[in-house]
Amino acid sequence: MDLGDVMSELYKSFNKYFEIEIADTPQLLEQVYKIRYQVLCVEQRIPGFEPSQFPDEQEKDDNDIHSIHALLKFQSTGEYIGTVRLILFDPKQPQKPFPVELNTQLDLNLCDVDRLPRQQTAEVSRFVVINRFNRRKENRRKGEHQPGAEDAAKEQRHTPDRRSGLTIALVLMAGVMRMSMQHNIQNWLSMMDTPLNRLLSFDGLAFTPIGPAVNYHGMRRPYFVKVEDVLKRMYSNHRDAWDVLTDAGKYNPLSTQKMSN
Fold it and tell me: What is the four-CA torsion angle of 82, 65, 29, 214, rounded to 10 degrees?
């Protein structure tokens, strides 16, 4: 199997099993908040997300009013299985800090967020997948079957430098890429746990740590990456994953020549 075949199989797997929808209607936003409630409050029971705080069973916060959201649909069932949001610059409060600035300890030598153009910067947040599709879940029962989801995982790549198989983390980041294109986002911030960043790194999507880990809804570190750097790295070294991230170049703010330089 040559590299072109590998790229083709991964991208075909993405299109066969998943669909990304931008949650731009009240009905879709309700799905976003319900998934977040299900994962954060019921399944994972993360401190600070007690179900009693959300009697309508929709998890929301004050950043949602200036955020955009993507939903991940599993095509064979039509079920929404995950969501991710981008917290944008708040035009009503231009100096409002991003959550990563408020809740972690940033090393200004690694990234001075104040020097970033805030209108072109966004924070990747609420990166959630329902449990039975979450292959990162450590306490997943051995042999548990995810109807249809395991078929997607079997669409494997055989590249020597990283794990094989299409990950839902990569597919959710394809949603992030689409939202970023819509809003001219050039810089990504995030608070995430180390295993998630490691998982993203297998597809060339690693963020750079810009501070120590802190206990904020679990141990998390602040991260930063330029979108341009991600696209160039993936185009050169992980072309099959780049095809998924950009929908075969449809959501790519850089020219092919610029990525090759």
Answer: 20
Q: Can you state the angle between helices 3-17 and 239-246, rounded to 10 degrees?
A: 30
CATH number, position 75: 3.40.630.30
Asked if 194 and 207 count as a contact pair (C-beta separation under 8 A), the reply is no
Residue 98 in domain: yes
Cβ–Cβ < 8 Å for 241, 205? yes
| Number of domains present in the structure of the chain | 1
Q: Could you tell me the CA-to-CA distances from 21 to 12, 78, 235 in Å, in that order?
A: 18, 12, 24
Which of 100, 39, 14, 25 minimizes the C-alpha distance to 69?
A: 25
CB 22, CB 68: distance < 8 Å: yes
| pLDDT number for residue 155 | 40
Burial 243-260 (b: 16+ CB within 10 A, else e): bbbbbeeebbebeeeebe
Q: Which residues contact 202 (CB under 8 A, 6 or more apart)?
A: 162, 163, 167
Element of type H or E holding 86: strand 79-87
Full domain range(s) for residue 19: 3-134+162-247
pTM, two decimals, is 0.87
pLDDT value of position 133: 81
> How far apart (Å, rounded) are the C-alpha atoms in residues 35 and 48?
16
Q: Kindly report the number of other CB atoms within 10 A of residue 79's CB atom.
A: 12
Whether residue 194 lies inside any domain: the answer is yes
In a domain, 256, yes or no: no
> Cβ distance 254 to 233 under 8 Å?
no
**Residue 118: closest CA among 100, 85, 92, 95:** 95
Model confidence over 70-103: pLDDT tens digits?
A: 999 999 999 999 999 999 999 999 889 999 999 9
